[in-house]
């Protein structure tokens, strides 16, 4: 048996797949979809997230950043996006009351105020210790 | 996230990271205006 025959036999159950699978969260793919005017902002965010990812506890931040920009790329490449943004900006006083969208809005505001107040106490306490 | 220095411009992801909601918030009047929903799921 030739060496090549043995190799083909060994590969008998291997299907032909590309070496790199398509990844829509790939930064290159994101830049392909994202309008050019956002590239600088994307690259700055990507650079910051990639640097942070060196720390094990912030590894997932890189994935989250890429996913967010993938979503933005899809949103911003919609030809109607800018006109909807402008319309939302120009119509003052128009909108839905937040409590109609977020049912527990009042509780969230109270909790946020409490957290903020607790944060101030913590920060001033740590300052006092120095 | 603000956009172009506009603090009223906000975004939020939903649906385990497959959805993006883009909206403007009037903090004083507590009004929200959703103007884009993107879903890639």
Short description:
Chain A is an all-alpha fold and 130 residues long. Chain A has helices at 3-10, 27-33, 39-52, 59-76, 81-90, 98-101, 105-129, and one strand spanning 96-97. Helices cover 66% and strands 2% of the residues of chain A.
- What is the arithmetic mean of pLDDT of chain A? 83
Class by helix and strand content of chain B? mainly beta
User: How many domains in all of chain A?
Assistant: 2
Separation of termini of chain B?
Answer: 22 Å
Q: Helix fraction of chain A?
A: 55-70%
Rg over alpha carbons of chain B: 11 Å
Query: Largest sheet of chain B, if any?
Result: 3 strands, antiparallel
Q: Give the mean pLDDT of chain B.
A: 87
Silhouette of chain B: elongated
Low-confidence runs of chain A (pLDDT<50, min 5 residues)?
122-130
The beta-strand count of chain A equals 1
- Count of all domains of chain B: 1
Q: Can you put this structure into words, describing what you see?
A:
The complex is a heterodimer of chains A (130) and B (41). Chain A has 130 residues and is mainly α. Chain A has 2 domains: 19-84; 97-130. Chain A has helices at 3-10, 27-33, 39-52, 59-76, 81-90, 98-101, 105-129; one strand at residues 96-97. The longest helix of chain A has 25 residues, at 105-129. The model of chain A is unreliable at 122-130 (pLDDT under 50). Chain B has no helices and 3 strands. Chain B is elongated. The mean pLDDT of chain B is 87. By secondary structure, chain B is an all-beta fold. Chain B has one domain. The A-B interface holds A 24, 64, 67-68, 70-72, 74-75, 78, 81, 84-85, 87-89, 91-99, 101, 105 and B 6, 8-9, 11, 13, 17, 19-20, 22-26, 29-36, 38, 40. Strand 1 (96-97) of chain A pairs antiparallel with strand 3 (31-39) of chain B, so a sheet runs across the interface.
């Amino acid at each position: 048996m030739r060496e090549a025959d043995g190799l083909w036999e060994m590969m008998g159950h291997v299907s032909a797949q590309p070496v790199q699978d398509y990844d829509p969260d790939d930064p290159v793919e994101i830049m392909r979809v994202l309008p050019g005017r956002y590239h600088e902002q994307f690259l700055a965010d990507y650079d910051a997230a990639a640097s942070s990812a060196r720390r094990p506890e912030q590894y997932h931040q890189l994935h989250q950043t890429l996913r967010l920009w993938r979503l933005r790329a899809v949103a911003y490449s919609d030809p109607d996006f800018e006109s909807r943004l402008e319309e939302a900006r120009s119509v003052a006083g128009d909108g839905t009351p937040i409590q109609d969208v977020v049912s527990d809005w009042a509780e969230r505001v109270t909790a946020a105020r409490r957290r903020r107040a607790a944060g101030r106490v913590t920060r001033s306490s740590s300052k006092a210790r120095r | 996230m603000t956009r172009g220095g506009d603090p009223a411009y906000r975004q939020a992801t939903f649906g385990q990271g497959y959805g993006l909601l883009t909206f403007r918030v009037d903090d004083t009047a507590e009004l929200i205006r959703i103007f884009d929903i993107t879903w890639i799921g």
